[in-house]
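#struct-help
A.M.: can someone run this one for me? Single chain, 298 residues.
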Amino acid sequence: LALMAQFGRDQWRAQGETFTVWFRTLNRVAIYGVVPAAQTAAARGVNADDEDPDATDVSVVVRRPFASGLLDATWEIPRVALVALGTASIIFDGLSQTVAFATVFGNPALVQKTVILIVFLWVIAGVALVVGRSVSWGAIGAGLTPIAVGYLVAHYLTYLLIDGQRLIVAASDPLQTGADLIGTAFYTPVHFLPAGLVWTIQLAAVVGGHVIGAWAGHVTAQRDMAARASEKPPRDMRHRKIQGTSTRRIPNVRRREIPLAVVMVALTTLTLWSLGQAIVVEPAAGVQPRISLVSPPR
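D.P.: on it. Structure tokens below:
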């Protein structure tokens, strides 16, 4: 509230409030979305120039082709970094539960695991920023966002559907005092999803996100590189050019996209591998630490 008062409600929510920025970014994949306030200013009797450029008109919801919002977004460096950190955090959440992670790092304490997390996040974010600088910020932003959505579905679907049933327990004992208000305090979550169906959904989410990301990244890269190639030369160079001609050439888009493709394939492969691994179950408090293996998928 203090930061909204300082910078303005809409500007802070659009640029500073993490959850708002994150969910608005993920909404670029959806078929429904809100529009900038400047687009509806005339209908509301307001001058568009007076509108905050970051404000949205939440009273107007538009329907658009699936994932087309990725192509219309403005991808700045901070938003690309946010998408990269979000994608990396989901991957780390899966990797940190695998036997391979326990074999390499053992059972790290809170501080050590936090350091490992920070290093992993910034390695992935650094790679994304390097690729964005090489190709275009729009290409890496539009390419990683649907991948992040697919990873969210793949990693947290079972958590939502199975552990989410614990809300039934919480309804009977909301304050964790041992109460049983509606008789559901001892409800046990039901594992109703067959393992094969879970794996199919996870595979479709990861690969589907990768395919959409590859399409969006390629289209955005073509557009950005074409715009870059058509930029006007500096004023002091105009006398060296014949009117109506251009000496600038559009770079080979596909060749420039190789780093983007390598990063996307590597992240998808790493995620599919982690989903297929046995996971480590951390021991309860007071129990001698040991590694227990649970067959995938989670």
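A.M.: thanks! The mean pLDDT is 83.
D.P.: also worth noting: The first strand starts at residue 32 and ends at 36.
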